[in-house]
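User: I'm putting together notes for a lab meeting next week and I want to include a structural view of one of the chains we've been expressing. I don't have a solved structure, so I'd like a prediction I can at least talk through. The sequence is below, exactly as it appears in our construct file.
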Amino acid sequence: MDLSGDWFVIVNPNAGRRKGEKDWLEIARLLNEAGLKFLNVFTEHTNHAMKLARKYIENGYRKILVVGGDGTLNEVVNGVFTQKRYAPHEITLAMIPVGTGNDWGRSFNIPSDYREAIRVISNFKTRLQDVGRVEYIYNNLTKQRHFINMAGLGFDAMVAKRTNKVKQQGKSGPFSYLISLFTSLVSYNTVVCRVLVDGKELNTDIFSMSVAICKFNGGGMMQAPDAIPDDGLFDVTIITRVSRLEVVKNVKKLYDGSYVKMPQVKTFRGATVEIEANPDMFLETDGESLGHTPMKFEIIPRCINVVSGDPEFIPSEKQVD
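Assistant: Thanks for the context. Below is the predicted structure for the 321-residue chain, given as structure tokens.
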């Protein structure tokens, strides 16, 4: 049976304070009204979306629709890169956002309204975008993870970890990231780091750091305002030693990206990033908490198709068809 034209829909029932479960019947009705052929499966545990994506791609599906948040999308991307049947660029991903952050979708203008999101899927305008791969340490073992939006280190990783704990308690909401940000300020300190971006070395105290493919993180914060999803480069942003008062005073600058003009902020671009830290600095990718330094990042250029709703998305000059 040729399943390459059908959608395999991965539904995270817990996403967005169980919006995935509560709204699924409405979403399914709208998918049927749009004439989209699909098979859906609900996730049951952490990393289940990765296993489902891998299994059903190997069964012949080449179009994967995520009904969930950025964490679910991250798992699916890792499923794409661990299946053996198709090259990643032969797979197309789409999303109906029901999570609490939905940051990846902001870069591609994916509507939060279900009917409009499905209209975007029906239009099927696709772009090839970059994917990041990171090696890190977890339980004294070297692990690897792919990501499609942004990796955060240091303070950002602590905030993500606290936010994830709140989500597990079923109390997440639009302000969960901000609440975690302010509570994390009490205990977090800078870390001495050695960073290499395409071999260029920087030694400094780091408060927070992001390695970005797309622009947004933390529920709408523009942490990488100049990031281009298909230019084959990470946008690296480093916040050096900064006082707690300055963080509180400048939170609003995270939402319009103007914080990168602060003297404590350094920005770089590169295809590879290596990080050593003392003490270890922790990591999150697409909002999912992982391990710690040492870490190695590598960009995989224009390697996966995504359905985009953004008519103003302009591919980089480096694009080749």
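A couple of points you could mention at the meeting. The two ends are 30 Å apart (CA to CA). The chain has two domains: 7-124, 132-300.

User: Perfect, that's what I needed.
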